[in-house]
Amino acid sequence: MELSATFLLMGIPGLQSSYLWLAISLSAMYTISLLGNSFIMAIICMNSTLQEPMYCFLYVLAAVDIMASSVVPKMVSIFCSGDSSISFNACFTQLYFFHSTTAIETGLLLAMAFDRYVAICKPLHYNRILTSQVILKMCVTTVFRAVISMTPLIWMLSHLPFCGSTVVLHSYCEHMAVAKLACADPMPSSFYSLICSSIIAGSDVAFITASYVLILRAVFGLSSKNAQWKALGTCSCHVAVMALFYLPGVASIYVAWLGQDTVPLHTQVLLADLYLIIPPTLNPIIYGIRTKKIRERIWTLLMCLFFDHSNQGS
Fold first, then answer.
1. Looking at the record's lineage, which domain of life comes first (predicted)?
2. Which of 217, 288, 280, 276 is nearest to 252 (CA)?
3. Looking at residue 312, what is its pLDDT?
4. Do residues 111 and 142 make contact, with C-beta atoms less than 8 angstroms apart?
5. CATH number for the domain running over 6-313
6. Which residues contact 264 (CB under 8 A, 6 or more apart)?
7. pTM of the model
């Protein structure tokens, strides 16, 4: 493999006539994602009252979302200018970071579910269980798991010979789309990807589900209706974020494997693209609206900015 060689990203085959609208939509969502997640991170950093474990996990989640959506500008350039070339090294780097951030995000969602379990089911022991050392260990373990699981995948894929077509039938360097271009059998890396993704996501979903079953049992055991609604409201935004992440992700993975001959290629690519950008776009909106402390800080900050500019203008 020559280091100077390049792949050509196809975009979304069959939807070339919609590229302008796709570029506008992706640009808008990427802007919301970048500004929203940066805003969340800034608010958490600037407020000493937002140093609880949940906000620490939310801070890391926002940072991961920014990294996960960083491939969008390249996608937009394909739709706008047709600049589809990407070097082998850049392609495998993009692939590595995308799959790694996906693995990190599922671990963070599990950590956030555990945080809610402790807060609702064991409130008196909350500060003793979720210490700063425990939070750091959970975050480090999540990142370490992603690196350990994704490194062999990228190693196997990057060591395949690419001696034929270099046109990737996708908008970014998605694993299955790149593996299909290899001149050797890509099944080992593809099978590893499927098994690894299924184990990581499957185990996390199982533990998250168990956490929320215990949470619901504790919530409906509360005597106060107001306390029940408050706890359910807090958990509802977490469940919404998890649904936005897992449902399109699982659909994208298994459609690529099982629906290759039945699902149109442009549908597969579009589903993968939406899975890439929708969670980072909606996460800060959901948390900003549903989390009272963050909502209050956002409102205070906006009011300060608005009145400062008004006073300066007068």
1. Eukaryota
2. 276
3. 56
4. yes
5. 1.20.1070.10
6. 14
7. 0.85
